Amino acid sequence: IGKNYLFFTEIDSTNLYAKRNELSDGTVIVAEYQTTGKGRRGRRWISNQKKGLYFTIVLKENIPVNEITVFSLIFPLSVKRAVEKLLKIDGLKIKWPNDIYINGKKCAGFLIETELEGNEVGRLIAGIGINVNQTEEELKTIDIPATSLYVETGCVVDRKSLLASILNEIENSINAFDKKSVLNEVEQSLLWKGENVIVIDENIEGLLVGLTDTGGIKILTDNGILETFVGDLTLRRV
Ligand code: BTN
């Protein structure tokens, strides 16, 4: 990963760049800032402060379509591992399907897009955005509770070193990809496990039990255990 490395001071979105261009397997596109950063579910991702880490990895692995959800968990897992090792902190939580939270606030988001070829993934475009050195003041422009590595540790983080560690972790995770161990590791740091949650748009409410063996989630509702592979979680405040 990263043998083909493209750096832009300014770009619309590293994911859009990846989608527009023919790029080799493992290409990494990094931007100092993005003018129209994209989030999941059509949201935007504010990334104009030159203090975060914004990058996209293009993969042409042959991933069977039914393994995409589990495979995609590699990305938050690798970011969590890299951050915890580099900054010697712990307690990073993975919010299903793929966000990273620290102390109840969002610190990183992942936009995983796939282009299918039959029953396999032709290209997987993994966009990763991390709040790194933003101050509390600078995070106020984000419309959900957000935090940065700087706010959490009080240390300014070298974004290049962080990127290098993350790419290493991702490469290792891909080479050693094992569904069960990915699911186990994510399950151990699953945000809101055992709490009452709502799956937005899916009309499911109940206790978050854990992950299914394909990377979806199990929710204990009044009508028994339901499984879903789509949607976004929020905490149910009672
Ligand atoms: C989300 O939490 O909704 C996903 C955010 C993903 C943001 C990253 S930043 C790099 C890449 N380029 C984009 O336009 N989006 C992703």
UniProtKB/TrEMBL annotation:
Reactions performed catalytically: biotin + L-lysyl-[protein] + ATP = N(6)-biotinyl-L-lysyl-[protein] + AMP + diphosphate + H(+)
Keywords: ATP-binding, Biotin, DNA-binding, Ligase, Nucleotide-binding, Repressor, Transcription, Transcription regulation
Gene transcribed to yield this protein: birA
EC main group: ligase
Record's keyword annotation contains DNA-binding: yes
Binding residue positions for biotin: S13, T14, N15, Q34, K106
Single GO molecular function: biotin--[biotin carboxyl-carrier protein] ligase activity
EC nos: 6.3.4.15
Lineage start: Bacteria, Pseudomonadati, Aquificota, Aquificia, Aquificales
Domain BPL/LPL catalytic per the UniProt entry, residue ranges: 1-178
Name this polypeptide is given: Bifunctional ligase/repressor BirA
Interval of the full protein contained in this chain: 79 to 316 of 317
